[in-house]
Amino acid sequence: MKFTATEKEVIILKAVIELIDSMVNFEVFNLYGDDPHSEIGFRTMTHQKYFNIILVDFLSCFDEKKLGKKQSYLDAIRTICQSPNFNKSSSTENLKKSTEEFIIWLEQEVQVKTELPSIDNKTSLLIKEL
User: Fold this and answer.
1) How far is Cα 130 from Cα 120, in angstroms, rounded to an integer?
2) Ranges of each domain in the chain
3) Which residues are bridge partners to 18 per DSSP?
4) pLDDT tens track for 64-93
5) How far apart are CA 76 and CA 59, in angstroms?
6) CA–CA separation, 91 and 26 (whole Å)
7) pTM
8) Can you tell me the distance from the alpha carbon of 40 to that of 24, in angstroms, rounded to the nearest whole number?
9) 127 in helix, strand or coil?
């Protein structure tokens, strides 16, 4: 079945909302502190694993047979923000800004100091979130 651009946008937005609602869920974690210094703590290890599974799904590519193009949900949202079908009075600006900020955060490198006592070594690792 072929979908119009508007139908594809609706499908992607619905899928993204469901994935985010599954991850950002107070059944899964507790929120500590106040913005901008707040952090989350998972209720159980099972909740953390569940969150990680949904996050990997969110960052993965969806089935190209369904929508005709292989891309991640995040890239699909970025594409939608560039040319939205439902933009009324700049209503998509918050989505665009949040998406870009999340992508920038995922792409930044973080230096982690690590100690490996079994081989008597201290080192720093550069890790990219994505």
Assistant:
1) 29
2) 5-128
3) none
4) 777 778 888 999 999 999 989 888 888 899
5) 11
6) 27
7) 0.76
8) 10
9) strand
> Quick one: which H or E segment has residue 122?
strand 121-128
Residue type, 56: V
Q: 91 and 80 in contact (C-beta within 8 Å)?
A: no
94 Cβ contact partners less than 8 Å away, ≥ 6 residues apart: none
Tokens at 59, concatenated: 């960052």
Please answer whether residues 103 and 95 qualify as being in contact, where contact means their C-beta atoms are separated by less than 8 angstroms: no
How many C-beta neighbours within 10 Å does residue 84 have? 15
Q: Where are the beta strands (DSSP E) in 66-105?
A: none
Do residues 58 and 74 make contact, with C-beta atoms less than 8 angstroms apart?
yes
Residue 50 sits at the vertex; the CA angle it makes with 47 and 52, to the nearest 5 degrees, is: 110
Cβ-based neighbours of 33, under 8 Å, separated by 6 or more:
39
Strand 121-128 relative to strand 39-42, pairing: unpaired
Distance, in Å, from the CA atom of 45 to the CA atom of 57, rounded to the nearest integer, reads: 18
Strands 109-116 and 29-32: unpaired
**Residue positions counted in the chain:** 130
